[in-house]
């Protein structure tokens, strides 16, 4: 921030008149009007600072009278006018920047209705503010694809981006923290280094159709008609019967017969498998046939370790030891055949 200038009475009066005049001229306008001087806002700040120093000096001396009140009212009025003028000019610059950027996307060849601003007649701080607005508008247009919305597919076809080799860098990459221009560098489109896709090869069905002797349907039918004409014109001995494989067929090409001989596939008769002789299992002669006389509440284990349920009237073949034990216990009796 630059140091505040010291203004005398004539300079302060001149700056105040310029402020009020610029405010009256800017109110009905929608574009920023030229300022009376290039350091306009710096001089307005100096005017308010000089008034503030004068008021503080009068308060320090204790001279509280109508002159002090008039200075305070004058300071308040200047602050209000400066605030309204700054707000009005900022809105006008925003409208100007947005109108310039958005109208240029519709038809770039058409002349703009809004003239460009002469920055020799505007404050440098306003110029910096206007350039910041342009950057934000350009960023907004890029995010929403403004060019694509306005020109559609035709704009994408006509304006192909220039491609660069992979690894190409912008000039700003060598500057460091600073920037070469006020606007960001454009995006780079790199070349496609991928190999092209291989050519498609014919599938097995197409190769099979090319190798078939009856692939050309028209030639097949013409040959059939020519063969019939030759047969009708012959008056000599009867022609030999053609082989079934060489006969022409008037059906669809999918049903045309093949010239190769037909091979008959015969199934071999199934061989009868030798059935194993079923021999009845010889009954163990050591077992004893017994009849159960009393039902046992729980099964008993036989000689093989399997449980055996004993109920009245059942007949079992048991080994000698178990049969003797059941007979001695009165649970079973011998039942000879």
Describe this structure in words.
- The protein has 337 residues and is mainly alpha-helical.
- Among the domains are: 9-157, Methane Monooxygenase Hydroxylase, Chain G, domain 1; 288-334, DNA packaging chaperone protein FI, C-terminal beta-strand domain (Ribosomal Protein L9, domain 1), CATH 3.40.5.70.
- The chain is 44% helix and 6% strand.
- The protein is built from eight helices and seven strands; from the N terminus they run αααααββααββββαβ.
- The strands form three sheets. It has a three-stranded antiparallel sheet with strand order 6-3-7.
- A hairpin with a 5-residue loop joins strand 4 (300-301) and strand 5 (307-308).
- Helix 1 (9-26) crosses helix 2 (40-61), helix 1 packs across helix 3 and helix 2 (40-61) packs antiparallel against helix 3 (66-104).
- The radius of gyration is 58 Å and the shape is elongated.
The ordered string of helix (H) and strand (E) elements is: HHHHHEEHHEEEEHE
Number of strands: 7
CATH class of the domain at 9-157: Mainly Alpha
Label the CATH architecture of the domain at 9-157. Answer: Up-down Bundle
Low-confidence stretches: 242-248, 279-283
Q: What general form does the structure show?
A: elongated
Beta-strand portion reads: 5-15%
- Measured on Cα atoms, how large is the radius of gyration? 58 Å
* Structural class assignment: mainly alpha
The major pleated sheet works out as:
3 strands, antiparallel
Strand order of the main beta sheet, please?
Answer: 6-3-7
Amino- and carboxy-terminal Cα gap: 134 Å
Helical residue percent band: 40-55%
The fold-level CATH name of the domain at 9-157 is Methane Monooxygenase Hydroxylase, Chain G, domain 1
Count helical runs: 8
Overall mean pLDDT score? 75
